[in-house]
């Protein structure tokens, strides 16, 4: 009952007029930016991150929760209306949702996506309120060696999703860890990788890195592959669902919630695998399997619910362990850290008003999202007609403005350009952005935990060995060696559901120009259905 009483107190914080206003603004801005073609939720959050500067920390994070959910909903809109997923987790929505839209059922597809997101988000947020305090209590007992091992697992996991492009993932992680090392060594006081530049002594602001890699890098990439042909936007009326649509959707909503939350809550989780598992599950259980591939409403309802449940589940490791499992969660971690607050096991004890206000605001933002976006769907469809050249010019302008406002330092604009160029080159050679941004954020903390563990053991490597670390390192070894083991094992259809999901992933990614390893930032280059993967290198 303690969690419920704390949650009620959180609603007291979140329901103040000021916080309600900022939650509404966050949902509105998050949806308006996230619905634009080629912009996923991670880029939306990174682009709007500077807007929260200057606000009270609780108010800022409540606004950020609205941006988070708004950006997630915007990705489903582009998937359905343009067949342009902003991230790999939205590929499944595009498979069936765009078919529904092209058969004249765009309103129904948007409605089941919105309502499914609300149902799953509400269930998953309730589970978050119940699970997170228990996880935090257990995590308090974790030693520095254990924390370092868990971070190593997170590093390896984000580079090894389905084993699609491990070399590129590790290369991107190395880039992120290198950027995170720039500055003054906390132990020796020596400068590292500053090359004699005084402005680099304090390191590079995570906000500058996030905005540069996501927003500027994507804008430069799109400008290099811009196509002048107009977008084929499907007109939309007010989203509505018939009784038959509700009858076919409510079970996928619940199943999607059950599938998505556990995957998101695992430190090595994410939304990509569960969305495809949800799709395959609904295809197996549907009474209308012949409609799959032609616009089955279950194929939109289940994966969209799974995606949102996974997003809420991802806040469990973020708040309790300080470990993000997706690029969007990584940018949210950067936002929390910008206020001098470090997520981790003691956050629920040191900042209870902040944490429970944030969790309560997720309920509010989820409700505002549903109430706001159902009637405004025709407006979002018209926003999709903004010329790409104007859109990305505006992104570059606001990115520069936000990066400068973060520290009022002109040198940050130079860094933004350099990191944006780095983001462009990473896209050019197929390196995923997620491992890089997680390396930047978690690298310094992993280093600090490693040094603390070695100090406690007087420099002996045996200090890194505990029952938990042995278990974690075994898991890491299995993740690294699994591709080799899989080649040596005889091919047997032992887990048909997972194998079918893997086949669906490869097929959908091939259609949309995405690779599994590039799980967030990789999406169609020109936003058109005719040539979705222009210029995008595939995974090895």
Largest sheet: 2 strands, antiparallel
What's the end-to-end separation, in Å?
Answer: 51 Å
In DSSP terms (H or I, runs of 4 or more residues), the helix count works out at 20
Query: pLDDT under 50 segments (min length 5)?
Result: 494-502, 512-540
Arithmetic mean pLDDT: 76
Structural class: mainly alpha
Q: Helix amount, in percent?
A: 55-70%
The ordered H/E elements are HHHHHHHEEHHHHHHHHHHHHH
What overall form do the CA principal axes indicate?
globular
> What is the domain tally?
1
The share of residues in extended strands comes to under 5%
Quantity of strands, as a count = 2
Report the radius of gyration as a whole number of Å: 22 Å
- For the biggest β-sheet, the strand order reads 1-2
What's the arrangement of secondary structure elements?
Elements: H1 2-14, H2 17-34, H3 41-48, H4 57-82, H5 91-139, H6 144-158, H7 166-181, E1 183-184, E2 191-192, H8 206-224, H9 243-265, H10 272-285, H11 298-313, H12 315-321, H13 327-337, H14 347-350, H15 352-383, H16 388-407, H17 411-428, H18 433-456, H19 467-488, H20 496-512
Antiparallel strand pairs: 1-2
Helix pairs in contact: 1-15, 2-3, 2-4, 2-15, 3-4, 3-8, 3-13, 4-5, 4-13, 4-15, 5-9, 5-11, 5-12, 5-15, 6-18, 6-19, 7-18, 8-16, 8-17, 8-18, 9-10, 9-11, 10-11, 10-20, 13-18, 16-17
């Amino acid at each position: 009952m303690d969690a419920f009483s704390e949650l009620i107190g959180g609603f007291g914080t979140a329901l103040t007029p000021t916080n309600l206003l900022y939650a509404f603004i966050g949902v509105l801005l998050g949806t308006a930016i996230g619905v634009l073609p080629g912009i996923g939720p991670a880029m939306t959050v990174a682009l709007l991150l500077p807007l929260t500067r200057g606000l009270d920390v609780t108010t800022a994070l409540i606004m950020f929760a609205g941006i988070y959910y708004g950006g997630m909903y915007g990705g489903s809109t582009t998937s359905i209306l343009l067949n342009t997923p902003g991230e790999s987790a939205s590929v499944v929505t595009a498979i069936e949702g765009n078919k529904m839209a092209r058969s004249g059922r765009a309103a129904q597809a948007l409605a089941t996506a919105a309502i499914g997101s609300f149902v799953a988000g509400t269930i998953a947020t309730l589970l978050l309120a119940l699970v997170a305090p228990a996880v935090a209590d257990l995590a308090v007992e974790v030693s520095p060696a254990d924390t370092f091992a868990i971070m190593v697992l997170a590093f390896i996991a984000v580079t090894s999703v389905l084993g699609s492009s491990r070399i590129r993932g590790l290369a991107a992680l190395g880039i992120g860890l290198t950027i995170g090392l720039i500055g003054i060594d906390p132990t020796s006081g020596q400068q590292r990788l500053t090359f004699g530049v005084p402005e680099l002594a304090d390191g590079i602001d995570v906000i500058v890195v996030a905005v540069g890699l996501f927003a500027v890098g994507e804008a430069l990439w799109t400008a290099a592959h811009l196509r002048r042909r107009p977008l084929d936007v499907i007109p939309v009326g007010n989203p509505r669902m018939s009784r038959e649509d509700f009858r076919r959707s409510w079970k996928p909503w619940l199943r999607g919630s059950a599938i998505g939350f556990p995957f998101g809550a695992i430190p090595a989780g994410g939304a990509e695998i569960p969305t495809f598992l949800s799709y395959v599950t609904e295809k197996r259980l549907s009474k209308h399997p012949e409609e799959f591939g032609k616009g089955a409403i279950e194929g939109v309802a289940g994966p969209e619910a799974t995606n949102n449940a996974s997003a809420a589940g991802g806040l469990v490791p973020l708040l309790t362990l300080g470990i993000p499992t997706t690029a969007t969660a990584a940018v949210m971690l950067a936002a929390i850290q910008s206020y001098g607050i470090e997520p981790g096991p003691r956050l629920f004890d040191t900042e209870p008003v902040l944490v429970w206000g944030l969790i309560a605001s997720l309920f509010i933002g989820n409700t505002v999202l549903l109430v706001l976006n159902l009637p405004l769907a025709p407006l979002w469809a018209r926003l999709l007609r903004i010329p790409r050249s104007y859109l990305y010019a505006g992104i570059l302008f606001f990115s520069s403005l936000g990066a400068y406002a973060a520290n009022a330092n002109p040198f940050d604009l130079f860094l933004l350009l350099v990191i944006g160029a780095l983001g462009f080159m990473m896209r050019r050679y197929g390196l995923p952005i997620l491992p890089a941004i997680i390396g930047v954020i978690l690298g310094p903390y992993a280093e600090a935990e490693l040094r603390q563990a070695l100090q406690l053991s007087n420099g002996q490597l045996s200090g890194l060995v505990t029952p938990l670390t042995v278990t974690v390192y075994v898991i890491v070894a299995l993740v690294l060696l699994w591709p080799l083991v899989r080649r040596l094992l005889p091919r047997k259809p032992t887990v048909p559901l997972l194998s079918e999901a893997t086949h669906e992933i490869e097929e959908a990614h091939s259609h949309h120009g995405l690779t599994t390893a590039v799980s967030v930032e990789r999406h169609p280059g020109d936003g058109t259905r005719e040539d979705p993967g222009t210029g995008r290198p595939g995974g090895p």
